[in-house]
Amino acid sequence: MTDVGPASARQRLDAALSGLATTFRGMTARPDEHNCECHWGSAEDLARLKEADTELDPDLLHRTWRAIDWSDHPAVLRRILPQFATALVDGSIEPLFGLEEAGRCFALGHWRRWPAEQAAAVEEFLAAWWVYTLTAADAPVLGHQVLALSVEASGTLTPWLRTWETVSGPVADRRLAEAVARWERDLLGDELPWDTWEDDEEETREELTAWLVRHAPARLRAHGADEELLHRVRLLGLTGPDRWEDPHWPAYVY
């Protein structure tokens, strides 16, 4: 494992945010883009999306990233991406449910199909933000929220777990303890602990569960997690009656 310092992680994140600003400078929504004035916003609001490099007020930014019915979602995402990414990092994005909602905005933009320079800038932002979250004690957004967003944005869990596996230190272990405490009830009920639009929900849940069973116990002990949380992880490695009849089964009702 590698011990990444918070200062270097922040430098990388700042560089990634700067890269987004440079890469997507001058981007706008399509001239013929439209949305419902009754439910989304006014013609004046829509016109702002067709102006390059002007900052949107927080409410307009919120309505824009949450809308799923743009005729050219990739163009809209490119228009808002530098400001959107900065707002995500500073914790000012407030979804109605989980932060995975914001990840779907990325997914709907199909950013992996963009020109190589653009796709690389998005990928580096997500990767740098994740490392920063695992190393900076004062990161505004919790690890389990950033992970859910990143999985939904990228359509895969594997690289994010691989990073968590390699980044060491007390902050990364604390993020793991926070995540397990948030996830264990859902996972013990064989449910993915965030809402997903992906078709491979079961596969993602199984991958997450197997990773936790293998990697979480030692790190949770190092963090000083209580024994009951460790038992929850142990139970994830059991199935059927072996899980439900275990003396440490928490008797959750699903």
Describe the structure.
This protein is mainly alpha-helical and 254 residues long. It has two domains: 1-137, no CATH class; 169-254, no CATH class. It has helices at 6-23, 43-49, 58-66, 73-89, 100-108, 116-135, 143-154, 158-166, 170-188, 201-223, 227-236, 240-244. The longest helix has 23 residues, at 201-223. It is globular, with a radius of gyration of 20 Å. The chain starts with 5 loop residues before the first helix and ends in a 10-residue tail after the last helix.
Which range does the strand content fall in? under 5%
As for the number of domains, it is 2
Order of helices and strands: HHHHHHHHHHHH
Overall mean pLDDT: 95
Q: Report the radius of gyration as a whole number of Å.
A: 20 Å
Low-confidence stretches: none
Largest sheet: none
Give a summary of the structure in a few sentences:
The chain is 62% helix and 0% strand. With 254 residues, it is an all-alpha fold.
Topology, pairings included?
Blueprint: H1 6-23, H2 43-49, H3 58-66, H4 73-89, H5 100-108, H6 116-135, H7 143-154, H8 158-166, H9 170-188, H10 201-223, H11 227-236, H12 240-244
Helix pairs in contact: 1-4, 1-6, 5-7, 6-7, 9-10, 9-11, 10-11
